Amino acid sequence: MNNLIWLTLGMSAVTYLGRIIGYCFICYYQQPNAKVEAFLKAVPGTIFMAMVAPQIANQSSIVWIGSALVFAIAAKTHNLLIALLVGGFSFAALQYALN
User: Fold this and answer.
1) Domain tally for the chain?
2) CB of 89 within 8 A of CB of 73?
3) Within a 10 A sphere around the Cβ of 72, how many other Cβ atoms?
4) N or C: which end of the chain has fewer CB within 10 A?
5) The pTM is what?
6) pLDDT, tens digit (0-9, with 9 covering 90-100), for 2-50
């Protein structure tokens, strides 16, 4: 379990480091236009969905409900942390209630 935490932290650091370096590189040479800024803001969400969507596809209805809540909250609030917390708590509550 300890290795999993370090692996997750390492992958997160590399992901955001790459994003920061790219943004600094673009800003150093030219001011990014609105399309570039919108793309850079959308990248973390798309990477997250690319990793999570295949895992959700073959799961139970509890996971589907939790995922739908995460998507709805993320679309409404534009805050991924709050959406993930709500999804985690809803999954735990549903798991507890149905088992």
Assistant:
1) 2
2) no
3) 13
4) N
5) 0.50
6) 777 888 888 888 878 877 777 777 677 777 678 877 776 777 767 777 7
Burial class from Cβ neighbours inside 10 Å (0-12, 13-18, 19+) for residue 1 reads exposed
Q: Which domain holds residue 21?
A: 1-30
Taking only the tens place, the pLDDT of each residue in 4-17 is 788 888 888 887 88
Same domain, 45 and 23: no
Q: How far apart are CA 77 and CA 66, in angstroms?
A: 16
CA 24 vs. chain centroid, Å, equals 22
CA distance 92 to 40: 32
